[in-house]
């Protein structure tokens, strides 16, 4: 469980979730939760079709390289498939237009742009998915501004437009949306979603007003927060909640950590322990991006070899780190110290169990990234491996992230 260490200046939950002021669009009387459906991952789809190539894993940190280092040594070229999302499982339904057209999207705290596959797109990735057709919406309009969106290992081009977005009882008029024109690579062909709804800060939105910011400007929410519950063991029940928290999804207290840079949901890490022994890796400070658009827990590359060796993982030809499924009881507990509170991850949290044609095997849910934070401190990515253990609240009013033990 989360330790009972005291945390300085913790805001009262009721203060964070206060009522919004009235607006012409009305005020939501309660929070709005969007169910997230579990699908096969892109990697699983490709593996079943014999399309997965050796050394298929790439650095998850490349997703952030253009934003963190637009002109620096980590601003890598982005002309490969969108494989950052290859291991993700959970997507939710939104509708857009008049009459509404419905699509599955990834709710991604690691990016800011909202985009959909559209009828403008002729790439292979747009040949086997539902496509948004702006000509069939009476409320769609566009000023013709184009965009380029890089995700580190892939990118797309498109045109920005505006339409009414519907999210689980919320109607958001004049929401900016990117409509794809090209989606390079073949990885996206195997995706089970049609777009990405970015939930990071507006400074990364390429001039588009992100969905959360539109909700805030129009006072559509009882509180300017959203929260994620990612179900354990991949069962149904995952959800994203806008405007509040779902108290049935967590136990105990919500512990808060301030955002250290308003690009991503980036926070400070003060310590990292293996079996309660401090490693010293964050003695001089570490940073972490809390990212629902990354499936794994990502470790700074300089520590990855040691950590995989410590948990007994060995790399195979696909870049996966294999684990003996029978060894979980002997593997260590990992723990992060965030704003004075310890958040442990047991072996069951960071071990991925796979079933391939009735044969079970296990892999490490930990990968490495070469990308440091902009202040030079080592960078971790707290993806779904971490988020399945901890309910997370993203507070735009106070620029902080809350963590509570998931129910």
Automatic annotation (TrEMBL):
Residues 90-404 form the Peptidase A1 domain. It comes from the Eukaryota. The active site is at 108, 291. One of its GO terms (molecular function) is aspartic-type endopeptidase activity. InterPro entries: Aspartic_peptidase_A1, Aspartic_peptidase_AS, Aspartic_peptidase_N, PEPTIDASE_A1, Peptidase_aspartic_dom_sf. Disulfide bonds join 121-126, 325-362. The keyword Disulfide bond applies. Keywords: Aspartyl protease, Disulfide bond, Hydrolase, Protease. GO terms for biological process: proteolysis. SUPFAM superfamilies: Acid proteases (SSF50630). PANTHER family: BETA-SITE APP-CLEAVING ENZYME, ISOFORM A-RELATED, PEPSINOGEN C. Belongs to the peptidase A1 family. This is PEPC protein. It comes from Polypterus senegalus.
């Amino acid at each position: 469980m989360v330790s009972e260490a005291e945390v300085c200046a913790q805001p009262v939950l009721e203060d964070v979730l206060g009522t919004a002021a009235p607006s012409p669009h009305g005020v939501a009387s309660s929070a709005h939760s969007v169910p997230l459906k579990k699908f096969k991952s892109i990697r699983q789809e490709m593996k079943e079709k014999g399309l997965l190539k050796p050394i298929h894993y790439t650095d998850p940190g490349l997703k952030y390289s253009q934003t963190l280092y637009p002109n620096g040594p980590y601003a890598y070229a982005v002309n490969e498939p969108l494989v950052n999302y290859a291991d993700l499982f959970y997507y939710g339904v939104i509708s857009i237009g008049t009459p509404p057209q419905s699509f599955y999207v990834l709710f991604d705290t690691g990016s800011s742009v909202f985009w959909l596959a559209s009828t403008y797109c002729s790439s292979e990735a747009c040949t086997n998915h539902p496509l948004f057709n702006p000509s069939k919406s009476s409320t769609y309009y566009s000023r013709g501004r184009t965009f380029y969106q890089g995700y580190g290992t892939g990118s797309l081009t498109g045109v920005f437009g505006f339409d009414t977005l519907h999210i689980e009882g919320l109607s958001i008029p004049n929401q900016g949306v990117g409509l794809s024109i090209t989606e390079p690579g073949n990885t996206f062909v195997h995706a089970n979603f049609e777009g990405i709804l970015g939930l990071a800060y507006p400074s990364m939105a390429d001039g588009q007003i992100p969905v959360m910011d539109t909700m805030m400007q129009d006072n559509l929410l009882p509180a300017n927060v959203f929260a994620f519950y990612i179900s354990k063991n991949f069962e149904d029940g995952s959800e994203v909640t806008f405007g509040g928290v779902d108290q049935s999804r967590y136990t105990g207290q919500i512990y808060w950590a301030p955002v250290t840079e308003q690009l991503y949901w980036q926070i400070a890490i003060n310590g990292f322990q293996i079996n309660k022994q401090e490693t010293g890796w964050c003695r001089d400070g570490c940073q972490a991006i809390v990212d629902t658009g990354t499936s794994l827990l990502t470790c700074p590359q300089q520590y990855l070899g040691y950590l995989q060796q410590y948990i007994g993982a060995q790399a195979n030809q696909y870049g996966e780190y294999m684990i003996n499924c029978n060894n979980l009881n002997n593997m260590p507990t990992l723990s992060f110290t965030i704003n004075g509170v310890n958040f442990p991850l047991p072996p069951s949290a960071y071990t991925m169990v796979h079933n391939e044609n009735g044969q079970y095997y296990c892999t490490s849910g930990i990968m490495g990234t070469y990308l440091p934070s902009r202040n030079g401190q080592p960078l971790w990515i707290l993806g779904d491996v971490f988020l399945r253990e901890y309910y997370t609240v993203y507070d735009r009013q106070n620029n902080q992230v809350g963590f509570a033990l998931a129910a």
